[in-house]
Amino acid sequence: MDFSEFVLMASTTRLNEIERAKQYADAVEFRLDLADAGVDALDVSLPLPVLVTNRVKGEGGEAAPTTDRLDRLCRAVKQPTVKAVDIELSTLTDGDGERVVDQAREHDVTVVVSTHDFEETPNRDRLLSLLTQADELGDVAKLAVTAKNRRDALTLLSVTEETTRNGRTVATMAMGEAGRHSRVVAPLYGSRIGYAPLSGEHATAPGQYDLETFRQLYESLR
Ligand SMILES: O=C1C[C@@](O)(C(=O)O)C[C@@H](O)[C@@H]1O
Q1: How do beta strands 170-175 and 193-196 pair?
Q2: Which positions does UniProt annotate for 3-dehydroquinate binding (predicted)?
Q3: Whole-prediction pTM value?
């Protein structure tokens, strides 16, 4: 997956949902940290390409910050169905996430370098700096922040437009109610990934649209 165009990810913990997701999604985000199944569940052929995420606690996930978390990601990228892997920027700058990137490179798997802020939307300079750092360490620079008001959403959209114009591949979204619309609008400004659960009750982040709604809104806007 090269993310040269927008990719709508069905975000899921259950790979048997893929058949249903196929109707609306371009790919699947498998949330290893939230799933009952382990890496072995990926050892099958699936109808959509998989982005694997093993989100650490503190960035919206359930995985403890152990070497086992990264071992699982390293094993996952060896599965032929896995075409992209998510690793947090903080794991690359303060942790030992580099080996996940090395393993991904070896298996021709795209690296999404992510940052999450569940409290607020940092200022414009900080957003630009996070996206620039992430872009330098991976293939897609991803930023999920919390918008408290429309101005926050606008800041994120503006940063998305600027970084895309400068040739970077980014994925952005504002979590929470005030930023909800940004999930379907950000792709118009260059964001290359949207995340949506098959149904609202299985949301993996605040303010997500369900998959069908996301697809419909996106198609009607673009
Ligand atoms: O990091 C992201 C983005 C996300 O947090 C969102 O806001 O849609 C959803 C997560 O599943 C994914 O790993």
Answers
A1: unpaired
A2: 29-31, 55, 183, 204, 208
A3: 0.97
